[in-house]
Design a protein that fits this description.
Elements lengths: L7 E8 L6 H17 L5 E8 L6 H11 L3 E6 L4 H12 L4 E4 L11 H9 L4 E8 L5 H16 L8 E8 H8 L8 H8 L4 E6 L12 H13 L4 H30 L7 H33 L6 E5 L2
Helix pairs in contact: 9-10
Length: about 325
């Protein structure tokens, strides 16, 4: 076991239209980090808020917090780049020896940060927050999340079940992450590609007290697709096998038609013709759409457009 010195600490908080929750969240975060510093777990800290192109008064609220707290930095992005882009922007600007990423709504309890830092001091460069109780989420979200994690594992994607974006990363790991060039990022799996030696901190997910979740169904669906196509080609292998089975089925159908022709068997109606056309057309469309998802990712990577763009940074 490697003992480490108390680190300078960076807390990265992406915010998109979170004007209601930020004042309360900041007080809670400041209190916890102040205790960590008093207990000598950390030598000092900064809170890096990333405004992810908010359309409400989020930036105004952040500037007020900035004026009142010397530990605060603000990263203002030029537009909404999504959660993965905002987290990447925060990690690229963080000065700490370690950094923790956490959502602004604090449904992932920041009271677990001291435990995370302790695991870092014990020798872990990566500490993952894992939800063991999601009773505050809707039944639909709980069920779909469980099914999605199981799907990823079946497809060979290395993920930790019920881990979101609440994690601690040490400076060497942050630097490795910042040096990555890919644009389609799914951090929950990507970070495990860099380091599979990690500690786990478990917690109960809290209910959101103020504001509304900005992670709607369309964003959740897009995020889920990214998690699959960015880390495995198993779906392409599946459709290849499916295509082979369809060809074999077609050959069997041809043999059956020849048999019927030889023996003079007449098949009345049109259902036997139209129904297979509908079925196979749907399968072919699905396959083309899946292949298109992969081609679309290649197109995005080939353009090499920035993962995020910073308009302005405010620091003390």
């Amino acid at each position: 076991m490697i003992d480490k010195k108390p680190p300078f600490f960076s807390l990265i908080v992406p915010a998109y239209n979170e004007q209601e929750v930020l004042p309360v969240s900041h007080k809670r975060l400041s209190r916890i980090l102040g205790i960590c510093q008093s207990d000598k777990l950390i030598s000092g800290y900064e809170i890096v808020y990333v405004d992810d192109g908010s359309k409400d008064g989020t930036l105004t609220v952040l500037r007020k917090i900035f004026a009142e707290d010397d530990h605060v930095r603000i990263i203002e992005l030029r537009r909404n780049f999504g959660l993965q882009g905002a987290l990447s922007a925060g990690l690229s600007c963080a000065k700490g020896d370690v950094a923790v990423t956490i959502d602004a709504d604090l449904q992932d309890p920041p009271e677990k940060i001291p435990e995370m830092v302790q695991r870092y001091l014990e020798g872990f460069d990566l500490v993952l927050g894992v939800r063991i109780d999601r009773s505050t989420d809707t039944p639909f979200k709980r069920i779909t999340a469980q099914m999605y994690y199981k799907l990823l594992k079946c497809l060979g994607v290395n993920v930790v079940e019920q881990h979101g974006d609440f994690r601690l990363m040490a400076r060497p790991l942050i630097d490795e992450y910042n040096n990555l060039h890919e644009r389609n990022r799914f951090m929950r799996a990507l970070i495990l590609e860099l380091d599979d030696h990690y500690a786990v901190v478990t917690y109960k997910r809290e209910a959101r007290t103020l504001g509304e979740s900005k992670f709607n169904f369309s964003k959740m669906l897009s995020f889920s697709i990214d998690g699959v196509v960015s880390f495995t080609y198993a779906p392409l292998r599946f459709v290849s096998i499916l295509g082979l089975l369809m060809c074999l089925l077609a050959l069997a159908g041809i043999g059956w038609i020849i048999y019927c022709k030889i023996w003079g068997i007449v098949i009345p109606g049109w259902t036997s013709t139209v129904l297979p056309i509908f079925i196979f057309s749907g399968i072919q469309t699905l396959i083309l759409g899946l292949v298109g998802e992969y081609i679309g990712r290649l197109y995005t990577e080939a353009k090499q457009r920035p993962l995020f763009s910073i308009r302005h940074e405010e620091r003390h």
